[in-house]
Structure formats: structure tokens, C-alpha cells
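User: I'm putting together notes for a lab meeting next week and I want to include a structural view of one of the chains we've been expressing. I don't have a solved structure, so I'd like a prediction I can at least talk through. The sequence is below, exactly as it appears in our construct file.
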Amino acid sequence: MKKSTSTVIISFGIIQCLAVIGCMTFMQCKKTEPKPIKDIGKALNANDSIYLQKTALTPETKAALDLLAKQPMAEGSLGEQLVTFIGAGIYDFGEMFKFMDLKFHERDAVVIEKTRHEIDDLGRIMLAFPQMKIRLEAYTDNTGSAKKNEQVTIDRVNYIKSQLLSFGITEDRVEAKGFGPKYPVGDNKTPVGQMINNRIELVLVKLF
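Assistant: Thanks for the context. Below is the predicted structure for the 208-residue chain, given as C-alpha cells.
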């Protein structure tokens, strides 16, 4: 009887030890379990400043911005977007900006004159920042011939480029690309989506 009791006690003790070890292992695994991707994403967003640090504006940059401020640009326009970006001092090159007011006649490269102020403002900015380089990208919706639409977008960005060159800006500072109906950002099945897809964007390649 004593032997049987001792065996039971020993077996029970072994079971307890195994249970404790199993619990400790589970808790350790739980501690080292990786964070869900969504949490990691939030952490990365919170630490963006590690990669995009605010740069103190140089006297030359301040002087250029002061000069541009003497002739204010339309609210929300391309020019205001660029000036605000430069003044913020946080430079992420490859940043994209959009012509908000500039309009061309439908399916051609003839600009509507009352909307050309964004081209003029861009010329002023590029003169104020002589190291600035840009890439112009134009798109259309999918109405009509894709080939003709591509040519229209090429003609539009080349027109803008020609106007910038007339300001005295050198050709190597302006790259022009026309993509026609490629890379839509809106739904071409709706009027609003088509309007969104008919766009001209500017990519900042270099500022200083």
C-alpha cells in the first residue's frame, strides 16, 4: 500500500512539473509572438520623422520664398502646393503635385488661357530655385482612341515644357511624359472618374 501511494505521489509530482513547464513555455512564446502587421505599420508611420527630418531653411531659400510671396498664388493651385512644400522644410523627393486649375480644350493641346496661371507660377518658382528639376506627366480618360489620347497627353506636357523654356529654364530641368489613358486613378465608367483621370501631375525630381 505504501509503495502504491508513493508511486501515485511521484506521478502526480511529475504531472505538476510538466504542467508548470508547459505553462512557462506558452507564456514565453506569447511574449515573443510578433506584432500583427497592422500594428507594425502604425509604428512605422509614427516613426516617419526618422527618415523625413525637418531641414532648416537656408537664407537663400527664405529669400526665394519671400520673393514668390510678393505675388500670391491661387489657393490650392500647383504653385501654392509647391511653395507650401518647400516652406515646410521636409523634403521627400519624388513627391507628386497636381495642376488643379490648368485646363485644355477637349482632346487637344490648346490651353484655355484663363487657366494658364499655373504654368506661369511654375516658371516663377523654377526661376527662384535654379537647381529645381521636374517631371511632367499627363493622362486622359479612356474615351476614344488610346493612341490619339496618348499623343494628346504628349502634346500637352510638351506645350507646358515649351512655356517653361520661354522663361529661360533649361531643357534638362524639365522631363515630359504623356501616358494617355494608362494608369487611371478614377472609375472611367462615371463622369467624375473620367474627370479625375484627365489630369496633369508634376513629380519633383530635385530641388537644390
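A couple of points you could mention at the meeting. Residues 1-10, 29-50 have pLDDT under 50 and may be disordered. Residues 186 and 196 are 6 Å apart (CA to CA).

User: Perfect, that's what I needed.
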